[in-house]
Amino acid sequence: MFIIDRQTNRISPVNVKCFSELGFTERKHLQEWLTHRPDALGEELLIIQKEFDGFDDTRERLDLLALDKDGNLVIIENKLDDSGRDVVWQVIKYASYCASLTKGQIVDIYQQYLNKAFSNTETTRQEKELLENAADRICEFLEIPDLDEAKLNLGNSQRLMLVAANFRKEVTSTALWLLGQGINIQCFKVTPYALNEQFFLEIDQIIPTPEAKELMIGISAKEAEEKNTEIVLKNRHSIRRQYWELALEVFQKSSCTLYNNINASKDHWLSAGSGLSGCPYNLIFSQKELRVELWLSKSSTDENKFLFDYRFKMKNEIENTFGAPLEWMRLDDKKACRIQFSHQVDGYNKEVWPQYTQWHLEYMSKFERAFKAPLKKAANALKQHSKNII
Question: Residue 64 belongs to what H/E stretch?
Answer without folding.
Answer: strand 62-67
